[in-house]
Design a protein that fits this description.
Layout lengths: L5 E5 L11 E8 L2 H13 L4 E4 L5 E2 L4 E8 L4 E6 L4 E6 L4 H10 L24 E2 L2 E2 L4 E8 L5 E5 H4 L7 H4 L4 E10 L11 H8 L7 H15 L7 E5 L5 E2 L1 H10 L5 E3 L5 E3 L1 H7 L6 E2 L2 E3 L6 E4 L5 H19 L8 E2 L1
Parallel strand pairs: 2-5, 3-5, 4-20
Antiparallel strand pairs: 1-2, 6-7, 7-12, 8-9, 10-11, 10-12, 13-19, 14-16, 15-16, 17-18, 18-19
Bound molecules: flavin-adenine dinucleotide (FAD) and NADP nicotinamide-adenine-dinucleotide phosphate (NAP).
């Protein structure tokens, strides 16, 4: 079946903030051929292309004058297996959490700490998704991307991706690389990461002293469900700001004024702060202006109570950034991609 291009489509169902903007053109790509057709359409009609997955890391500030292509390709396969590792390949349009569950059902460990993150496999490398002490760089093998400038396929190794904290080469070249499929290095021998605060505590509370990867996944799903708003009930894009990594000197100054501040030392001597803590200290937790607000339980999450526009959410974000810079001397960087 060839690519179906529709015009004037509301993107409200396609972004987890639930912002109601229109795409000039919209299509779903189920295969590499669809993706190539979309590229050709965009060139022929001189209209830019915007690729999306689950829309869970986007802030849409206005109608989108592009051909929006939603990745809907499916397929999960083991492409290599030996006694040490299994390489699993998944198509970009695979929804992330069901993919994690499928790997666990195949007896493959490694992704359990990344359970219940919304979005798709294809977008996961974009910001090196991370949670509970694991990032995809820890289990990444390679990926195949289409170079939108040349139309050629390119293989990316771990080094090529230049993964950093919520960062990658793709985040800096959003209009160039279209990720088609990703391969992960998983294992039938679990090496669990339980050191991240509430995980071990949750397992202990359940009397689980020798957890399986499934136990870890279930514990993390339970913790997340209690702490984070479900986008199906309350529009949001998860953490709105990255946790800032600051110099040891600035950390010492903040600590003097706010002894309760928690810092996580980094390998390079800098210190990571919890952005949510800064925002809460500044009194923004639970703040609401019209339908744009800061979540009542989790200050790092901006929410749309219903009719907030992308610009209203952006304006709230800017006010928070200014306030945090004035109070603490810390620059907060937005995590979702802004369009
Ligand atoms: P989209 O929002 O659709 O796209 C994000 C960006 O990637 C856009 O710039 C888009 O153009 C680009 N893109 C999408 N697909 C492709 C592709 N195939 N090729 C090239 N570019 C592409 N993130 C974390 O890291 N950790 C968390 O724990 C976490 N928890 C979250 C909890 C909630 C409730 C929510 C709403 C979000 C959370 N996020 C988290 C953020 C988000 O889920 C992830 O960043 C996710 O990977 C985004 O996937 P997506 O498919 O929705 O991407
Ligand atoms: P939390 O447990 O309340 O902790 C607050 C912050 O402190 C976290 O963001 C985390 O940074 C940092 N932290 C806590 N324990 C740490 C440790 N042992 N070592 C290093 N850093 C530590 O966090 P939360 O908000 O409930 O989120 C739990 C996890 O899910 C975090 O990893 C978070 O990143 C992830 N998450 C991400 C999003 C998103 O949209 N990006 C949304 C929800 C949850 P890190 O963020 O660097 O881990």
């Amino acid at each position: 079946m060839s690519l179906q291009v529709q015009s004037a489509i509301s993107l409200k169902p396609f972004n987890t903030f639930g912002v109601d903007v229109q795409a000039r053109l919209f299509a779903e790509a189920h295969s590499d051929d669809d993706v190539r057709e979309a590229l050709a359409y965009s060139a022929r009609h001189d209209v830019p292309l915007l690729v999306i997955g689950g829309g869970s890391n986007l802030l849409l500030s206005a109608d989108v004058q592009s051909l929006v292509v939603r990745m809907a390709s499916r397929g999960i396969r083991i492409v290599h297996e030996d006694c040490l590792e299994s390489i699993v390949e998944a198509e970009a349009g695979e929804p992330w959490h069901p993919f994690v569950q499928s790997c666990l059902e195949l007896g493959l460990a490694g992704l359990e700490n990344l359970s219940l993150i919304p979005g798709t496999v294809g977008a996961a490398p974009m910001q090196n998704i991370g949670a509970y002490g694991v990032e995809i760089k820890d289990v990444f093998h390679s990926l195949t991307a289409l170079d939108r400038e040349t139309g050629e396929l390119r293989e990316f190794s771990l080094q090529d991706c230049a993964f950093g904290y919520r960062d990658s080469v793709f985040k800096h070249q959003v209009a160039r690389w279209l990720i088609l499929r990703v391969r992960f290095k998983l294992s039938r021998v679990a090496r669990l990461h339980l050191e991240y605060g509430p995980v071990r505590q949750r397992l202990d509370e359940q009397g689980i002293d020798r957890p399986t990867p499934f136990d870890v996944s279930r514990a993390i799903c339970a913790i997340r469900s209690e702490k984070l708003p479900d986008p199906a009930m309350l529009g949001n894009a998860g953490s709105f700001f990255k946790n800032p990594i600051i110099t040891a000197e600035l950390y010492a100054t903040i600590k003097q004024q706010h002894p309760g501040v928690v810092g996580y030392p980094q390998d390079d001597g800098r210190v990571k702060l919890a952005a949510g803590w800064l925002i809460e200290q500044a009194g923004w937790k639970g703040y609401r202006d019209g339908d744009a607000g800061v979540h009542k339980l989790q200050s790092l999450v901006l929410v749309n109570y219903g009719q907030a526009s992308g610009l209203q959410l952006l304006s709230l974000a800017r006010r928070i950034q200014t306030d945090i810079a004035e109070r603490f001397g810390v620059e907060l960087e937005m995590e979702p991609n802004l369009y």
